[in-house]
Amino acid sequence: MRTQVAIIGSGPAGLLLGQLLTKAGIDNIILDRVSRDYILGRVRAGVLEWGTVGLLDEAGAGDRMHAEGLPHDGYSLAFDGRDHRIDLFGLTGKRVMVYGQTEVTRDLMDARDAAGATTIYEAANVTPHEFDGAKPYVSYEKDGVTHRIDCDFIAGCDGFHGISRKSVPEGAIKTFEKIYPFGWLGVLADIPPVSHELIYANHPRGFALCSMRSETRSRYYVQCTLDDKVEDWSDERFFDELRRRLPQHHADAMVVGPSFEKSIAPLRSFVAEPMRFGTLFLVGDAAHIVPPTGAKGLNLAASDVYYLFNGLREFYADKSRAGVDAYSARALSRVWKSVRFSWSMTTLMHRFPDTGDFGQKIQEAELDYLTHSEAASRAMAENYVGLPY
Ligand code: FAD
Ligand code: DHB
Questions:
Q1: 93: buried, middle or exposed (CB in 10 Å: 19+, 13-18, 0-12)?
Q2: Are 154 and 138 in contact (CB under 8 A)?
Q3: Which of 183, 243, 345, 386 has its CA 20 to 30 A from that of 296?
Q4: What is the domain partition of the chain in residue ranges?
Q5: How far apart, in whole angstroms, are the C-alpha atoms of residue 381 and residue 157?
Q6: Where in this chain does the record put each FAD-binding domain (predicted)?
Q7: H or E element: which one contains 198?
Q8: 372 is catalytic
Q9: pLDDT along the chain (389 residues), means of 10
């Protein structure tokens, strides 16, 4: 088999890149090690920057998002028993879209089906080869038979645990990592959200986040320890804990009900540099991870796709390598700013086991500064809605 771009991974990064390439007339094949249903069963991000919204439109996969997604003009920081609203639209002229990653993925898969592009699910032992030269290829096994796809470029969109980054010789890659001493326990439940905007709460008992997927479906999180087990958290215990971490008026307004998804995610910052090795590109979580507090993971995958797609389009349309050559530097410049923002919002809103009195006072001073300084609130809002590409 031959294609122009072989894409490893059918998450949001691989699917968005594939759809933009297909629309530009650039042939591509997507390979994933798991099934389509498995991918659609994963519950992850919920907030889209407007740049991501624009890319989904450009990919021809934005109709349902505009019909069913919820544009949000602000969110609340809750602490000390009160709310401080970050007026995203008033401060930046931009808003975000609340629309789940599962739905984004489904829309991109449907658009890909409609375009007739090839995706190979349940492909085992997917491996990129010879990407230091001009004739790279990807091998994989399916139903016991080994296959080979020759290509011009390989896009490694296979997430943090994928094979692409691991295939790069150790001496050619530098990694940066920070592990946080807590996780997030999240539930999904068909109950109306406690508020029509998101609430990020800092409480002596720990962080909490009230998000949503629709006007009848809530997505709630509480900070938990790294030893916590999902089995130890009944719905009753979860909602009791969540309500204790919110200002009284929100706790009183909360409707509770049975959850149908409950999971724990560890928090990590990670960056691999560079993001290009010859004809292999790392895209999205394959190259970087951020803690979820700033809602940036999926949006960073989308901005990487923007830079790579434009580089590949220039390569095929204008016979110019300039965009492809600039990919890593352009992507990393934006990545590090989102890594910084995600770290700072995580540091501001969580209770760290080793903070001490001094760290606690600094956190309180920063929250108070945000409340009284429009400049500070605007800086936070500018990062949250997404820095320009
Ligand atoms: P992924 O979505 O990870 O997709 C990678 C794809 O590659 C997968 O389909 C996988 O099956 C496939 N793959 C992996 N290895 C191989 C292989 N060897 N061969 C072939 N295919 C392979 N972000 C937020 O902004 N907010 C959140 O609340 C949030 N919650 C999260 C919760 C969890 C548990 C996780 C893991 C992430 C969360 N994120 C969140 C981050 C966000 O979901 C990711 O940033 C986003 O999924 C990145 O998309 P991606 O396409 O780069 O990678
Ligand atoms: C959601 C997740 C986040 O990490 C975040 O910052 C906002 C919303 C969510 O899952 O809805």
A1: exposed
A2: yes
A3: 243
A4: 5-46+100-177+268-347
A5: 29
A6: 2-342
A7: strand 198-202
A8: no
A9: 98 98 98 97 93 98 98 97 97 98 98 98 98 95 97 98 97 97 97 98 97 96 97 98 98 96 97 98 98 97 98 97 98 98 98 92 96 97 97
Pocket test for ligand 2, best of 221, 259, 267, 289 (most atoms within 8 A of CB): 221
Q: Which entry of 200, 306, 307, 327 is annotated as an active-site residue?
A: 200
CA-CA distance, 313 to 310, in Å (whole number)?
Answer: 5
Atom of ligand 1 nearest to the CA of 158: 7
Residue by residue, what is the 3-state secondary structure of 271-302? Answer: EEECCEECCEEECHHHCEECCHHHCCHHHHHH
Instruction: Please list, in sequence order, all residues whose beta carbon lies within 8 angstroms of the beta carbon of residue 299, skipping any fewer than 6 positions away.
Output: 45, 47, 48, 49, 51, 52, 338, 386
Closest ligand 2 atom number to CA of residue 297: 4
The tokens of 316 are what?
């095929």
Q: What are 177-206's pLDDT values in tens digits?
A: 999 999 999 999 999 999 999 999 999 999
Nearest by Cα to 331 from 362, 379, 286: 286
- Give nearest CA residue, ligand 2 atom 9: 46
| Distance from the alpha carbon of residue 239 to the mean position of ligand 1, in angstroms | 27
Give the integer Cα–Cα distance in Å for 212 and 235.
Answer: 17
Given phi > 0 = left and psi -120 to 50 = alpha, else beta, which region is 122?
left
Prediction ipTM score: 0.96
Q: Is the CB of 45 under 6 A from ligand 1?
A: yes
Whose CA is closest to atom 5 on ligand 2?
Answer: 295
Tell which atom from ligand 2 comes closest to the C-alpha of 44: 10
Angle at which helix 322-349 crosses helix 356-372, to 10 degrees, equals: 110
Ligand 1 pocket member 285 (CB < 6 A): yes
Query: Which one from 136, 292, 327, 350 is the annotated catalytic residue?
Result: 292
Q: Is 72 a catalytic residue?
A: yes
**Class for domain 5-46+100-177+268-347, per CATH?**
alpha beta
State the closest ligand 2 atom to the C-alpha of 186, by its place in the atom list counted from 1. 10
Residue found under tokens 């009160």: 82
Residue 174, burial from CB neighbour count under 10 angstroms (0-12, 13-18, 19+): exposed
Q: Does the CB atom of residue 126 touch ligand 1 within 6 A?
A: yes
Distance between start and end Cα atoms, the chain: 35
Residue whose pair of structure tokens reads 């965009």 in the numeric block: 323
